[in-house]
Amino acid sequence: MDFEKNISLRKLNTFGINVKCKFYCKVQSEKEMVSVINSEEYNNNSHLILSGGSNVLFLKDYEGLIIQNEIKGKQIIEEKSESTILRVGAGENWHQFVLWSIKNGLSGLENMALIPGNVGSSPMQNIGAYGVEVKDFIVSVEGVNLDTKEAFILKNSECNFEYRDSIFKHELKEKVMITHVNFELSKSPINNTKYGAIKEEIRSLGLPVSTESICKAVINIRTRKLPNPEVIGNIGSFFKNPVISTSEFLKTQKQYSEIVGYKVSETETKVAAGWLIDQCGWKGYRKGDAGVHKNQALVLVNHGNATGEEIISLSKEIQRSVKNKFEIDIHPEVNIIG
Ligand code: FAD
Ligand code: EPU
């Protein structure tokens, strides 16, 4: 196994934070992973699995081994009358997998087109967009437990999936390497257009509603709304949208009638954190190279040479101001590597 030493991680995280790691390697198969976990570099150092780097914030140099997961492959496991079960390598690019599934007549993932990153990270925070979450299509998650070095397979019900959350962010945080994700996709179109903007975009494109047109609409909307990390460093939404009791929401709404919220259960409402941050006047703010995007207040940006500490310190100021104005706590979505 080849280990590189002292390499820059700047191009390996979409925030573009300029840090280094002590050791770095890529794994392209489960066999290579076994050879890594039997190495001195692995056993004498802390270790972190990295995929597309689109949801991490490094606060300082990583004094351990970074293992980049490049296990590829898409395999049909089972054909059912209405659906197909697929086993997909963690190192497959997410968006390319979505396009491939659509091309192969499978429906379900189209609303999540263009989310950056890899397939293996999709269960981590149960990625979601435009009214759909990946948990609705995951059958099970396979991987290696980094402590016991044993293979595991977790069924969907064992992954504790919630909004932007799963067992991999809690009990199994930094304890596993996901090697494959098994998905069940529909052979007939699902056509989920409950997110209003999709319907409008499809109408303006003059297309009928289909798996393909939903995918196209999502790509268009996302390209307009979200900054491209190739142009400006970011990790998408920095904070999660807070879920508060509907009674608290209604109280706040009396004072701020424009507040944006969506009912998520009988008693709870999800509030648009972007609106809260925007109302506190942060949109377009810049301090050094750390800033808040000019069109989307939920997205923190690196204008060039911001450090992780500068980004985190800005995020804390934002959290405090939202708390002071609205009495609402907002929490980071990003994985902070300190
Ligand atoms: P990484 O950033 O490499 O890793 C994320 C975390 O998972 C880290 O803690 C890492 O240690 C761990 N990890 C990664 N791979 C493995 C593995 N194989 N085994 C074990 N642990 C692993 N997210 C959404 O949900 N919805 C969106 O709409 C969305 N839009 C975005 C838009 C932009 C412009 C950007 C930059 C990001 C956006 N994101 C969105 C966030 C991000 O794309 C997702 O969280 C994505 O799943 C991260 O994938 P990644 O491969 O880059 O993971
Ligand atoms: N808003 C403002 N000002 C802003 C930003 C947003 O007023 O600066 C308002 C918008 O006008 C809208 C509301 O806030 O009324 C919600 O905004 P938007 O529809 O853009 O969605 P979001 O809550 O900002 C969430 C996800 C995104 C996902 C989109 C589409 C979270 C934390 N973010 O964003 O996911 O792509 O919905 O489904 O749930 C990510 O997780 O990284 C991510 C980009």
Describe this structure in words.
- The protein is α+β, with helices and mostly antiparallel strands.
- Helices cover 25% and strands 27% of the residues.
- The strands form 6 sheets. Strands 6-7-12-10-11 form a 5-stranded antiparallel beta sheet, with no helix packed on it. It has a 4-stranded mixed beta sheet with strand order 1-2-5-3. A 4-stranded antiparallel beta sheet has the order 13-19-18-17, covered by helices on one side.
- It starts with a strand and ends with a strand.
- Bound molecules: flavin-adenine dinucleotide and uridine-diphosphate-2(N-acetylglucosaminyl) butyric acid.
**Chemical compounds bound to the protein:** flavin-adenine dinucleotide, uridine-diphosphate-2(N-acetylglucosaminyl) butyric acid
Q: Give the name of the CATH architecture of the largest domain.
A: 2-Layer Sandwich
Radius of gyration from the alpha-carbon trace, in angstroms: 20 Å
- Mean pLDDT rating: 97
Helix/strand order, N-terminal first: EEHHEEEEEHEEEEEHHEEHEEHEEEHE
Query: What is the straight-line distance between the termini?
Result: 27 Å
Name the strands of the widest sheet in spatial order.
Answer: 6-7-12-10-11
Instruction: Give the overall silhouette.
Output: globular
How many individual β-strands? 20
Structural class: alpha+beta
Strand content: 25-35%
Enumerate the spans where pLDDT stays under 50 for 5 or more consecutive residues: none
List the total number of helices: 8
Biggest beta-sheet profile:
5 strands, antiparallel
Q: Tell me roughly what share of residues is in helical segments.
A: 10-25%
What is the CATH topology assignment of the largest domain?
Uridine Diphospho-n-acetylenolpyruvylglucosamine Reductase, domain 3
* Count of distinct structural domains: 3
